[in-house]
Amino acid sequence: GCPFPSSEYFRCLPRREAILDGMLGCNLVTFQTHSYARHFLSSCVRVMGYEAGAGGVDAKGSITRIGHCPIGIDVENVEIDRASPGVLPKMEALRKLYAGKKIIVGRDKLDPTKGVLPKLRAFERFLHDHPQWAHKVVLIQVTSPSPGDSADLGTKVSELVDQINGQYGSLEFQPVHYYHQTIERDEYFALLTVADLALITSIRDGMNTTAMEYVICQAEARGSLIVSEFTGVSATLNKAVKVNPWDLGGVARAIDHCLTMPMAERNLRHAALHETVISQTASVWAATNILKLLESLQGEQATQNTPPLDQGALLAKYRQAGKRLLLFDYDGTLTPIVKVPSAALPSASLLRSLTTLCADPKNVVYIISGRDGGFLEEHLGHIP
Q1: What biological-process GO terms show up in the record (predicted)?
Q2: Domain-wise residue ranges, the chain
């Protein structure tokens, strides 16, 4: 689910060739979006000098198929989770706590690429540029702890939250509610269901599952969705409002637009988003990739069938050659495949042919076999 960078960035890696060759050892490489696949193809051409086309990448004679297929969520399980008995009481508690206020929700890892700082700065800009929303909107931001958390980033986020609450809040009201903790699934789905807007401002991201889970949870309320144009999900959820997280003014305007969006527009956008999410599920993603892999293998077998040997051309080349290297496989070529390996013995005609070939000083003859040397020496070692 990770994005693949453009070739200009990828070529900076010290092990770029090893990474690409390792990936090209596969029969099929699938990315989440067309742009990620395009970046990979470009790197194969510009970094490795390989040929790439509609059929895939030709890496030293081996064809690797390249495709793209967006991963989704398990819609059935999400719908079961959001309908669980523990969700409704938490929804009621949230609605009571934030009665009369618009709720913006964000859930991200505490990682620089997830864009939590730009999100808070954009929300601050929103409160500054749209004072009519003072004390009427809250941002509930949850960051899930993980071993890779950045302590410095956590400090900056907390300081910015305090700054926003100090400037735009009061003793009775805080516009930003920040929780750096793991929340239970009942709380999570309750939050997604009561929210009026989901705000995702990742700097770089793959397929953001929170966005898709939010769409399922908003089947009745039809809340709006803002996603960063730098996420893989932005290419899939076409009817989401897309923003550049570095454009704070643009994000602020998008927030205002979504919070004031007419119900008719919300219905149209949500219908399209919902159709995309339920049709591009995790199971569809898995089935599609398995089918692509099978097609790739079938195509490889079809294109790699050994053509019939042109015996006349072979004989002409043989007579012209000053030196000849002859490599013969033993089982299945010199001798037929048999059920009992010890019964695969060289025939009298085979021994005569090998003797004739070895008697020609222009020939160097090797027998290739997985059998032990003792067996080959016993049955072929007498040939001079």
Answers
A1: trehalose biosynthetic process
A2: 7-70+285-303, 75-279, 311-380
